[in-house]
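task queued by scheduler; priority normal; single chain, no ligands, no partner chains; default sampling; output format set to structure tokens
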Amino acid sequence: MFLVRFLKAAMLDKEMEHMAFFLAELGLMHYSMIMYCPSLIAASAVYAARCTLKKTPFWSETLKHHTGFSEPQLLDCAQDLVSFHSKAAETELKVVFSKYSSPRCGAVALHPPATELLDELMAALIHDWVVQQLGRVGFKF
């Protein structure tokens, strides 16, 4: 339910919809994702799909408003989803990869995962946070 609502807020196309569902379904296949609430997984799937398909901006104020999550809050979960995407063809549980590799689902599983992009975004956000914290304690650059 969350994913459908968040996809409407993202004003997506069919390819984006398929990619977000692919990433969300990959998340359902991994027990480690139990630490994230369903709404965070859904929002992270939309974010990771936008990153994978290079839809800019990757996160907007509209999406933040409708999901209740900011970009930094999504990064850990989104990185997990992208990691699952990068390993999907090699795992024993290939049914989700096979489903989303078909033309019926836009073959979105065959897109290269956004691993490097998410790593760069995480590094940039950490840098910005550190600069902000140092500024609060009066550190001058």
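post-processing summary
- The chain has one domain: 2-136.
- The first helix runs from residue 2 to 9.
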